[in-house]
Fold this protein.
Amino acid sequence: MSQRYLLDTNVVSHIMQGRDAELLARLTKLSVGQVVMSSVTLAELEYGLHRKGQPVRLKNALTQVLLRMDVLPWDEQVATCYGEFCSTLEAQGINFSDFDMMIAAHAVAVNATLVSRDRAFAQVHEQRFRLEIW
């Protein structure tokens, strides 16, 4: 099976803005199903839309993204991975926001590469965690 990429909220947000030609070109080279997002990312995006009064342009952009990308559920397997993964990072002195930790653990749980623009993730040197900065 080809590599699967789980997109962080900041990357999906850039896709929705539609102004990053390099990012959009990179995505078009990947197969359908190869790029996914966490339900945690969708929750963050929905919160942002509601906080901004649900601007039509952004709501339409999110709808377009959701037509082309699967949203993976936060389930028992992910929750179990989250507990172990976060505990390991915390023991190393690494701490991120709750949502960032949830999304990173989700990537680990589904054996996907996390795609983010948050370079702070580069400090994670956990064997199962893969990161690409797009």
